[in-house]
């Protein structure tokens, strides 16, 4: 059957990369078809904003059905997706793969931390001989960061001038809300250690814009945001793209192959309708993959035909290779200084109002640290909406039960804090995804098999994170409550657990060692583009979403330019 | 104390029933991959966020529920305007928790239900008809004994039961009012801590030399 609409571009995925690509292309006047594996999702109608934990099953705690808690804005997703398994190669460390099945993908429940990569981050190999340089520099991406930040709406205004931690041009970023009590205290302790603290850069708007309300400092962003203060593609990018009349969206469309024409160009894609089970093919003049780093690689590797025995866009053999996550570990502390402080509203903009950018560049330049790359620190604490964790406060109490326990609970409420380190992983040959030779998902599509191994660089960094957290807790006169282990091997989170998996179809200058060029365009297939985290050649400590959005904006514009010139 | 009357109304019970029926009606018939383990009778991976339900059967006997009500109120007695746990449905929550089909509540199910039966037997051993009927002296003596930290199963039961009581209580609006949680209200701007509080913190930071 011939499709009714001739499309210019098919975009696979609706998260950061897919949402931004569709937004740019539709605004540029191209006819776009977006395919999303999950269901349609409307934050304005579905977000549980003011609901208390008492209204949720099991007071909202994590379960296998909802790994981040009942109210978390994840649909049919998590570390496992019903009927869609993945495997880890025998003998390797476990890799955990987070996937949602919803329009907007992970932008509905992401952490919102939006940090620019710095000049060093684009040329890491030139600096220390590890990993690989990007085919672009910070200066080439900077204007796109500016444009992206303006649309997304991000806090963190101010000029700090910190090394490899670029400030945005004045006027772009919104003011970060004032620090909470525990954040004022933490700032003092970090500064006593000679470590500068910065206002958080979070994708939560502080003034109304584009029909979105400003943050009203209540309700957890992880539930999504019906007032659109928090950036989700479902509220910020997809509606204006639809308003152009140039975008069609098909949900429940599980794409599994890129279909190739005899001329070596991509014809379109084939997907399975998750509801009916039917296989359907659609065609377009160009294809954009943004299904998430590993899923994009899976599509490439499953697109085998006579001409492409190893999959599409894989003449280099690097599709699926150089998979990276973020190095992560955390510790918590109990701080007597915070006991018995008066009640205060610590909700703020849900996430932290401060963060600690990597401070050790100079030490590393002097070879004083046993690991080559940096990490930033994220913080938590305060008098937050009580859930099941509140019962732990009784452990501090000298009244185990009965009269007097209430007073003790009030006394200890808000006196626990937490730290999380988020560090750069260097790509290595032992971390990659391939097609499992035996296992298929419920649709009959071969699944991914992950290989994972941390190197000494990451292990050393995780150990340093823990020691730093212990020192800061000690300086605050507190006691460590979790995250004691300082052996990096044991302290480090599993691969994928931080949910920053990138790589698998990296960009580069050399078609023999990369999948796409600096425009996200496949070396082997000129009308096939990749605009998700798969293209990242390195994974700096700065959370990847802002960079994925900025690259997608830049590269979708390039695609539109090339299409206009008739070059695709 | 008069017997505990469950706070679950007929409407809620009907909601559970209909939610369970829907779950069954849309259960996929496709063969599942071996690596995916579904939690039967859970609320599923796409529950209705605005109308939450916990669609599983409650397994406590009435005796266990009555005992739970007495014990939650011993752990956190009413005080001034702050109601007792049994007055705001916390025993129903404990029942919901131990009845849950999820893996992580399975160990609590065993610890709590066995602990409740044990504490009842313990009261009988001290000459009462049971824990619920025992006079408050006997009740307090038993709870005081099991609250002492040691490696016994009875203390493990106390710790878990207290954890569920406190979590169940303080996650309610009544619990917020007691502990001092004043968030979850929309604001034009975020004030942060006031000057008095900052000065207090400053004093405390000075005291430890930061």
From TrEMBL, chain A:
Residue ranges of domain Glucose-methanol-choline oxidoreductase C-terminal in the record: 427-552
Gene3D superfamilies: FAD/NAD(P)-binding domain
GO molecular function, one term: oxidoreductase activity, acting on CH-OH group of donors
Domain Glucose-methanol-choline oxidoreductase N-terminal: 24-310
Cofactors, names only: FAD
Signal sequence, renumbered to the chain: none
InterPro entries: FAD/NAD-bd_sf (IPR036188), GMC_OxRdtase_N (IPR000172), GMC_OxRtase_C (IPR007867), P2Ox-like (IPR051473)
Assigned keywords, A-Z: FAD, Flavoprotein, Oxidoreductase
Family indicated by similarity: Belongs to the GMC oxidoreductase family.
PANTHER family given in the database record: PYRANOSE 2-OXIDASE
Protein name according to UniProt: GMC family oxidoreductase
Organism: Gimibacter soli
Classification of source organism: Bacteria, Pseudomonadati, Pseudomonadota, Alphaproteobacteria, Kordiimonadales
From TrEMBL, chain B:
Family matches, as PROSITE patterns: TAT (PS51318)
Keywords: Signal
Endpoints of the signal sequence: 1-33
Domain of life of the organism encoding this protein: Bacteria
Protein name (record): Gluconate 2-dehydrogenase subunit 3 family protein
InterPro entries: Gluconate_2DH_su3, TAT_signal
Coiled-coil portions: none
């Amino acid at each position: 059957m011939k499709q009714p609409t001739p499309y210019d571009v098919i975009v696979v995925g609706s998260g950061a990369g897919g949402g931004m690509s569709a937004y740019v292309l539709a605004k540029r006047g191209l006819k776009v078809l977006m395919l999303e594996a999950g269901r349609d999702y409307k934050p304005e109608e579905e977000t549980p904003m003011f609901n208390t934990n008492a209204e949720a099953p099991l007071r909202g705690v994590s379960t296998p059905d909802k790994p981040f808690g009942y109210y978390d804005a994840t649909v049919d997703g998590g570390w496992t997706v019903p009927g869609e398994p993945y495997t880890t190669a025998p003998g390797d460390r476990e890799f955990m793969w987070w996937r949602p099945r919803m329009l907007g993908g992970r932008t509905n429940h992401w952490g919102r931390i939006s940090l620019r990569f710095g000049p060093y981050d684009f040329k890491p190999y030139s600096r220390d001989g590890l990993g690989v340089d990007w085919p672009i520099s910070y200066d080439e991406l900077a204007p796109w960061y500016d444009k992206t930040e303006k649309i997304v709406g991000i806090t963190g205004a101010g000029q700090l001038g910190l090394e490899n931690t670029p400030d945005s041009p004045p006027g772009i970023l919104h003011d970060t809300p004032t620090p909470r009590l525990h954040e004022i205290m933490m700032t003092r302790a970090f500064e006593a250690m000679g470590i500068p603290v910065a206002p958080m850069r979070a994708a939560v708007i502080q003034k109304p814009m584009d029909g979105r309300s400003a943050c009203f400092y209540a309700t957890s962003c992880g539930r999504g945001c019906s007032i659109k203060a928090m950036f989700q593609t479902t509220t910020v990018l997809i509606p204006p793209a639809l308003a152009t009349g140039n975008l069609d969206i098909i949900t429940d469309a599980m794409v599994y192959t890129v279909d190739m024409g005899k001329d070596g160009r991509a014809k379109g894609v084939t997907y399975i309708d998750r509801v009916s089970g039917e296989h359907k093919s659609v065609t377009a003049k160009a294809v954009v993959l943004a299904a998430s780093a590993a899923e994009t690689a899976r599509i490439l590797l499953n697109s085998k035909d006579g001409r492409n025995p190893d999959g599409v866009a894989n003449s280099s053999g690097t599709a699926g290779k150089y998979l990276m996550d973020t190095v992560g570990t955390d510790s918590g502390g109990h701080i007597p200084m915070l006991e018995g402080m008066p009640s205060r509203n610590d909700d703020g903009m849900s996430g932290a109002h401060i963060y600690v950018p990597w401070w050790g560049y100079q030490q590393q330049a002097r070879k004083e640290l046993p690991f080559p790359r940096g990490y930033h620190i994220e913080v938590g604490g305060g008098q937050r909406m009580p859930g099941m964790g509140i019962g732990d406060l009784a452990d501090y109490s000298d009244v185990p039960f009965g009269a007097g326990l209430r007073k003790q609970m009030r006394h200890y409420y808000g006196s626990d804090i937490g730290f999380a380190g988020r560090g750069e992983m260097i790509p290595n040959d032992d971390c990659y995804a391939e097609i499992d030779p035996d296992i298929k998902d419920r649709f009959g599509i071969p699944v991914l098999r992950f290989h994972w191994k941390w190197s000494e660089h990451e292990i050393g960094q995780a150990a340093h994170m823990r020691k730093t957290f212990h020192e800061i807790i000690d300086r605050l006169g507190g006691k460590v409550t979790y995250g004691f282990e300082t052996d990096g091997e044991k302290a480090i989170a599993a691969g994928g657990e931080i949910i920053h998996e990138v790589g698998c179809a990296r960009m580069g200058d050399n078609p023999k060692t990369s999948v796409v060029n600096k425009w996200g365009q496949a070396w082997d297939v000129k009308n096939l583009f990749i605009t998700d985290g798969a293209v990242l050649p390195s994974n700096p400590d700065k959370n990847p979403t802002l960079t994925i959005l900025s690259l997608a904006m830049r590269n979708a514009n390039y695609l539109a330019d090339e299409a206009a010139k008739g070059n695709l | 104390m008069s017997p505990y009357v469950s706070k679950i109304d007929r409407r809620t019970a009907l909601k559970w029933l209909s939610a369970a029926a829907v779950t069954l009606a849309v259960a996929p018939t496709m063969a599942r991959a071996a690596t995916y383990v579904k939690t039967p009778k859970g609320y599923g991976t796409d529950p209705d966020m605005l109308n939450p339900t916990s669609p599983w059967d409650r397994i406590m006997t009435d005796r266990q529920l009555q005992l739970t009500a007495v014990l939650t109120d011993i752990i956190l007695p009413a005080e001034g305007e702050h109601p007792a746990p049994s007055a705001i449905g916390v025993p129903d929550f404990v029942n919901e928790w131990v009845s849950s089909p999820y893996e992580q509540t399975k160990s609590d199910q065993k610890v709590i239900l066995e602990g409740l039966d044990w504490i009842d037997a313990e009261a009988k051993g001290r000459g009462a008809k049971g824990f619920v009927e025992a006079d408050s002296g006997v009740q307090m003596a038993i709870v005081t004994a099991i609250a002492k930290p040691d490696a016994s199963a009875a203390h493990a039961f106390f710790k878990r039961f207290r954890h569920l009581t406190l979590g169940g209580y303080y996650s309610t609006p009544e619990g917020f009012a007691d502990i001092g949680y004043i968030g979850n209200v929309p604001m034009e701007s975020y004030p942060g801590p006031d000057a008095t509080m900052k000065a207090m913190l400053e004093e405390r930071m000075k005291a430890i030399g930061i």
